[in-house]
Amino acid sequence: MAGLEGKKVLLGISGGIAAYKVCELARLMVKSGADVKVVMTESAQKFVTALTFRTLTGNPVATTMWADPSSPYPHISLSEEADIIVVAPATANLIAKMANGIADDLLSTTLLAARGTVLVAPAMNTRMYLHQATVSNIARIREMGVAVVDACEGGLACGDEGAGRMAEPADILTAVGREVERSSLLEGRTVLVTGGPTREYIDPVRFISNPSTGMMSHAVAQAAARRGAGVVLISGPTGLTPPHGVDVVDVVSAAEMRDAVLERLRGSDVLVMAAAVADYRPARPSSSKMKKSEGVPTLELEPTVDILKEVSGRKGSRLLVGFAAETDDVLENARRKLGEKGLDLIVANKVGEPGSGFGTTTDLAAIIKRGGGEQALEMMTKSELADRLLDAVADLLLKGRDPRPRPGH
Ligand code: CTP
User: Fold this and answer.
1) Which CATH number does the domain 8-185 belong to among 3.40.50.1950, 2.40.37.20, 2.60.40.10, 3.90.330.10?
2) For atom 15 of ligand 1, which residue has the closest CA?
3) Pocket of ligand 1 from Cβ distances under 6 Å
4) What digits encode the pLDDT tens for the residues 20-35?
5) Which of 23, 49, 192, 382 is 20 to 30 A off residue 265, Cα-Cα?
6) Does the active-site annotation cover 23?
């Protein structure tokens, strides 16, 4: 199987009957050239023995934090040395632990210590899979950058029919290969991402802004980091915790964002402008608080600088990616902005539709390329949209730009 030759895979197995199918997954991984190490939870060992996996992988199987006095930090070493951690089957309990940072055995502790690529294949009874708690835990781990191979519909061990059956080992293997390949797609590249709203102050206690939460930019930054890129996130005020491994530059106004972008542009290969930059700002902000007793003010506004337009004048060979958040004529408006702002890619994003736009975890969007090529997407999480976008970015970098002229390096 392509992509796993010489790769180190850490296979985490939690306690579900689908553990028996993971014997086949381990065999397929070994056959495709991977060096597979296994961590089993206590309940996993009730379904399949550690000896089975030791025999299949040729490596000792780790089951506890406390087994080897010469290795007091097995959770750190196991997570650090792996090119990818694959959890199959991932039970509802294990996913809940991942979503909440609970570390009470070797597998959950290793997952909390992990900083690289993690892929999980859930498997459980339909009622547990569709329970609101599991649905939101899976959404949460996706937001954290974990890749999820959705469970499928079918007959379950308990006799029920429905969603919750673990994906087939061959399909999990394909997903593992894709994630491993992805993890180095942007190695050596620097991606600049902007996000969140900007604030344009009227006086020290009032400002004009917009409802952007910064979730999309965080998803883009995380997706770029997962592909091995160096990532700088220039963010307006969001209150979000920055993704791991991403350098964050905090800004407030459109003018500050412009300065921060221009300052870091030189070393970057890609600029993704996901920020909702204010188009206007008060022409004469007051330096002291305006008082009600002075009457209702009339605000005179002036345009802010269009950052993308300014950057396109000094684009060099770097890729420029914009977002168009639109209520009407979404594709037409996005195509026009792609041309006017000299972009390579634009994400046309529907605002005002339930589940899409500002403050939602999902989006209804399309990715449009310069020179044609449009990918209309179904409603998907912002993390999935970020994945599609970064795949398109990596594709353009690889296809169009070899041998690679490096912008301003
Ligand atoms: N953008 C920018 N600088 C601005 C305004 C927007 O760089 N001052 C970027 C955004 O980050 C986004 C793209 O331009 O990637 C499109 O932004 P959008 O607000 O949809 O479009 P505008 O150009 O502001 O046009 P309009 O408000 O008329 O739709």
Assistant:
1) 3.40.50.1950
2) 322
3) 254, 273, 275, 277, 279, 304, 306-308, 322-325, 337
4) 999 999 999 999 999 9
5) 382
6) no
